[in-house]
Amino acid sequence: MLRLAGPPCECGFRDIAVHSLRTRRLFLLDAAAALVAGLAAPAARASSLRVGAPAPPATLVTLDGKRISTGDLHGKVVVLTFLATWCGPCREELPLLSDYQQAHASKGLVVLGFSLDEPADLEKVRAMAAPLRFPVGLLSSSQAPGYGRIWHIPVSFTIDRQGRLADDGWKDKHPVWTPERLQRVVEPLLIG
């Protein structure tokens, strides 16, 4: 078992144990690539994201195999949220986000959850997703390349009814969803 060192991020990475050899290998490869490339945290973001510009396409392959593409959701407000079973802040915000989505679905709100968990942890993901009222899938089975390498979570991106990026999660200092943040970011998009 490998313990990650360094300052904790939003999801408490320092305290996360990396169990599988595959996870450990992927983590080490990503860390080595970042060091070799000289990437600092801000450079690892999707630098082409611009609020007001067309949002990059994304396709979620849900846990039950359905494909949901942002291109098919034109006319709706879409929240792409990146999460994991091992992320404490993610688990805390999910019930709020689920309730908010259910309360505002009639106004055109759609939430898509992309889990960073490995396929080997599919049962944990299913258990986490079971009470949620929005679809969840594994990022490894889905596509969201235009949002950059997801290097910290939680992080979310909001797309307006015209398919434009309305909120860039990389720029949020406090990315966890709260009632106040939902009211500030999502609520204005649902009016009209």
Quick structural summary:
The chain has helices spanning 21-37, 88-104, 122-129, 179-185, 187-190, and strands spanning 2-3, 17-18, 59-61, 67-69, 77-83, 109-115, 136-138, 155-159, 165-168.
Description:
The protein has about 190 residues and is α/β, with parallel strands linked by helices. It is built from 5 helices and 9 strands. It has helices spanning about 20-35, 90-105, 120-130, 180-185, 185-190; strands at about 1-5, 15-20, 60, 65-70, 75-85, 110-115, 135-140, 155-160, 165-170. The strands form 3 sheets. It has a 5-stranded mixed beta sheet with strand order 7-6-5-8-9. A two-stranded antiparallel ribbon has the order 1-2. Strands 3-4 form a two-stranded antiparallel ribbon. The longest helix is centred in the first third of the chain and has 17 residues, at about 20-35. About 30% of the residues are buried. The model is unreliable at about 1-10, about 10-20 and about 30-45 (pLDDT under 50).
Shape: globular
CATH class: Alpha Beta
How much of the residues is beta strand, in percent?
15-25%
| CATH topology (level 3) name | Glutaredoxin
Biggest sheet strand line-up: 7-6-5-8-9
Radius of gyration based on Cα positions: 16 Å
Based on secondary structure, the structural category is alpha/beta
Could you tell me how far the N terminus lies from the C terminus, measured between alpha carbons in angstroms?
A: 52 Å
On the 0-100 scale, what is the average pLDDT?
82
- The total tally of domains equals 1
- CATH second-level architecture: 3-Layer(aba) Sandwich
Low-confidence stretches: 1-9, 11-19, 31-45
Helical residues, percent: 25-40%
Q: Quick one: how many beta strands?
A: 9
Secondary-structure element pattern, one letter each: EEHEEEHEHEEEHH
Tally of separate helices: 5
CATH evolutionary superfamily: Glutaredoxin
Largest sheet: 5 strands, mixed
